[in-house]
Amino acid sequence: MEVHETLLDLIGNTPLLRMNRLGAGIPAEMYGKLEMLNPGGSVKDRIGLRMLEAAEREGKLKPGGTIVEPTSGNTGVGLAIAASIKGYKCIFTMPDKMSQEKIALLRAYGADVVITPTMVPPESPESYYRVADRLTEEIPGAFQPNQYHNDRNPEAHYHSTGPEIWEQTDGRLTHVVISVGTGGTVTGTGRFLKEKNPDILIVGADPEGSIFSGGESRPYLVEGIGKESWPDTLDRDIVDRWITVGDRDSFVTARRITREEGLLAGGSSGTAMWAALEIGKETQPGDVMVVILPDSGKSYLSKVYNDSWMIEHGFLDRPGSRVRIGELLQDKRSHSSLPDLIAVASHEKVGRAIEILQSYGISQLPVARAERPEDVGEIVGSIHDRTLLEKVFRDRDAINRDVVEVMDPPLPVVQTGAGIEEMVADLSRGAEAIVVVDGARPAGVLTRVDLLEFLAHQPQMS
After folding, report:
1. In CATH terms, is domain 307-456 a member of 3.10.580.10?
2. Is residue 18 classed as helix, strand or coil in its secondary structure?
3. What are the extents of the domains in the chain?
4. Which CATH class is domain 45-143?
5. What residues are annotated to the active site?
6. Sheet harboring 89-95: ordered strands across?
7. In this predicted model, what pLDDT tens digit does every residue of 219-239 receive, in sequence order?
8. Which of 245-254, 313-322, 422-431, 446-455 ranks highest by mean pLDDT?
9. What is the pLDDT of residues 307-347, one digit of tens each?
10. How is domain 7-40+154-300 classified at the CATH fold level?
11. Sign of the torsion formed by the C-alpha atoms of 95, 12, 304 and 220
């Protein structure tokens, strides 16, 4: 009988798959390394086990202990699998931009998940890094592997991922493309391969908004890669070339991988593949390129593989859509004296929010961290006159509370380039208004009345 004792025995030794259709237009042979076939569905399984085993040897993690880790999801799954087998508790902190599938998956393993704001600097007490630090200090017997600063992270790839690729390509490898987050995969894998052949080109794929490839830090939507600061686990000298990839290219390419190769891939896989296709234009016949595909698309069905979400964020255009949200917003500006965006700061009192509603004759307001939000991530909720009335009627003291204590969830967000039917869809689900954004910048608010007035003057629209 050929059996394995635990699921941990199945980590690693992931296969290479020839990219027959995606790679058809480049001279090099192109292969994807299928890290989504690890037991937990991602490349992070490799580091989770190694970090825990090192902590056990060093006495940092003892029986019955608690693992606390800031994670975008995949490292948490790798740790949760190992913890369930070894008998540890888990608490993971995650920024709120991560998919609901990832959160649900971690909870399925019995982990506690603490959600923190995305739009705060790393040093903020609210950031998922600092919340994890605080929990580690407060909980007896807690241990934080800290994938961003733990040498076992790149070490895992030096001893597994790198050797696997070298053997699988019979040493013919000329290019390897890796989307970079903690830097552990590119550092460990690249270091091993460079020792075998210094001429191998190590390419780092970096999302727009990350600092690795030289840009300024700003929000982006692809998950699990990029950073706003340099982690200790990333050796900058290992990367020969950086390729910057936008959210749209990442997500559209991920969908191409799925539809052209039959391989359900996550957004960071799309990032790596887009960079590989760019580098591939420079390759020669006989070159061998390996693209590490970090995780599966199963955790992104509600986002990358949801047409409505993609259209909402301006990444897809729905065929046949004639009118764009931006046109509707422009029409409103042409006949309204109201400012494009009226918002109330979350620290203001409820009484101030009521004054704003009354002075402008409106029925809802976005709630933001500042009165003039410059990024959609700063919008944290909304105020509606009908729900506010109920709260103030039941509790007169509510008028002196901070807005953040009584606010409703944020209004739906729609890109200026999205079709007008996206607004209709949001309104049909109960929303009274939407926030219009141009990229990440809030551009205005549109209401049911705005839409009705526009439609009244568009008799030929279908």
Report:
1. yes
2. strand
3. 7-40+154-300, 45-143, 307-456
4. alpha beta
5. 44
6. 112-116, 89-95, 66-70, 142-143
7. 899 998 998 889 999 999 999
8. 245-254
9. 889 988 889 865 434 678 888 888 888 878 888 888 999 88
10. Rossmann fold (3.40.50)
11. positive
